[in-house]
Every structure is written in C-alpha cells, then in structure tokens.
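Supplementary Methods. Inverse-folding protocol.

Structures were first reduced to a discrete structure-token string of length 271. This string, shown here, constituted the complete conditioning input.
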C-alpha cells in the first residue's frame, strides 16, 4: 500500500515539475513573439508615415496644378474675348479705309472733297488714312502673332495640366489604397499581439505571424518603389506645367509703315 502511495506521489511530482519547467520556456517564447510583432509594427509605422507624407506632397502639388489649369482656362477665355474685339475692330478699320480711299481719289482730282458739309484736303484725308492704317496693322499683328501664339501656348498648357491633374488623382487613389492596406496589416498584427499575450505562443499564431511578415515585407518594398517612381513623375509633370507665356516674351513694340493709297489697295484690294 505504501509502495503504491509513494509511486503516486512521485508521478504527481514529475507532472508538476514538468509543468513548472515548461512555464518559463513558454514565457520566453511569448516574449520573443511579442518582440517580433513589435518590430514589424515599427516598420509599418515608418512606412505609413512615408506614404502619408507622399500623399500630402502629391495632394499639394495636385492642387497647385489644378490652380494653374484654372488660370490657363481663364487666360484662354480672355484671349478669345480679345480675339473677338480685334476682329470687330479690324472689320471697322477696313470699312473706314475703303471710304477714305474713295475720298482720297476724289480729292486728288478736285483738290478737296466735301464730307458732311465740310471740305477736306488730300493731306487731311491721308493723315487720317495713315492713322487708321496704323491701328489696323497693330490690330492685325496682335491677332496674327500675339493672340495666336498665346492661344496655342495656353491650349497646350491646359491640355498638359488637365492630363497631369487626372493622373495625380489616380495616384492619390493608389496611395489611399496603400494607406488602408498598411492600416489593415497593423490591425492584424495588433490582434496577433493581443492573442499572443493571452494564449502564449501557439503554433497557429506563429504560423500566421510568419505569413503576415512576408506580406508586410512585400508591401514595404512595393510602397517604396511606387513612392520613388511617383515622386519622379510628379516632378516631371510640374516641370511640364511651368511653361507660362507672357506677351512681352513674344513680341516687342509694333512696327509702323508708310501708309499710302497703294497700301490700302493691298489690304482691301484694288476695287
């Protein structure tokens, strides 16, 4: 009887000793797992900050390009208004020159011509024709050179800006997705950390952690590459957008010409 009692007590002691010896090993393994999870969480936090900074930079640059696009659109509209005014002025100048040409021919034969009950000499009519020709040439030069050049420049700039803004919006959406993906990985790691604290280092938690760590490493590499590529693209798009043109850069002062009846004929035709 005492022999059986001694054997039972010995078995209990062995079991208790095994359990007590296993406790520290489980604690050490649990601490190692928590440290690993904290390490990966740290990497994710760093990467999240990078992506958020890239997002903020791209948002600012997109807004800058959007403002430039609005500015280019406004300038194009103003150019169209100026073009319309110039075309109306040119038509009016040509009409006046046609009448002046007829009066000058008449005055050349008779010495003077009566217009609205007032006599005008050839010299007076020629001075008026010269002034009108100068206005016509200035308006025509502005229309053919300045307005056309600026319209072409701003139209091209507007097209580039529209394209760049659209591309930037797409990239912002991708960065939003990456931010959400990183946050999802962080949430999964936080859940593992809590489970590891409660349950120790079960094999299932360890396996899931290893799988998630691989996903995180792949994600970090992908994000780094995308940030570098998009940063370079943004710089290129901004460089394309910084091509504003000013009137002074296109033409200097308008040149004058010797205004005669033959010049009027050249402009209006010989009729």
């Amino acid at each position: 009887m005492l022999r059986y009692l001694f054997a039972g007590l010995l078995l209990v002691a062995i079991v208790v000793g095994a359990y007590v010896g296993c406790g520290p090993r489980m604690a050490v393994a649990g601490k190692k797992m928590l440290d690993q999870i904290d390490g990966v969480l740290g990497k994710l936090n760093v990467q999240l900050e990078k992506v958020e900074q890239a997002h903020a930079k791209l948002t600012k640059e997109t807004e800058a390009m959007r403002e430039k696009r609005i500015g280019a659109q406004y300038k194009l509209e103003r150019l169209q208004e100026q073009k319309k005014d110039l075309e109306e002025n040119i038509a009016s100048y040509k009409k006046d020159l046609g009448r002046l040409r007829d009066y000058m021919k008449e005055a050349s034969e008779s010495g003077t011509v009566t217009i609205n009950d007032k006599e005008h000499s050839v010299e007076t009519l020629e001075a008026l024709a010269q002034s009108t020709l100068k206005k016509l040439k200035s308006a025509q030069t502005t229309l053919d050179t300045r307005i056309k050049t600026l319209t072409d420049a701003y139209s091209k700039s507007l097209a580039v800006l529209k394209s760049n803004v659209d591309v930037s919006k797409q990239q912002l959406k991708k960065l939003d997705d990456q931010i959400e993906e990183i946050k999802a990985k962080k949430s999964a790691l936080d859940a593992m950390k809590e489970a590891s604290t409660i349950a120790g280092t079960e094999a299932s938690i360890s396996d899931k952690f290893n799988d998630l760590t691989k996903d995180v490493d792949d994600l970090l590499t992908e994000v780094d590459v995308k940030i570098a590529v998009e940063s370079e693209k943004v710089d290129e798009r901004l460089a394309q957008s910084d091509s504003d043109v000013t009137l002074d850069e296109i033409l200097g002062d308008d040149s004058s010409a010797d205004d005669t009846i033959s010049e009027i004929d050249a402009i209006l035709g010989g009729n």
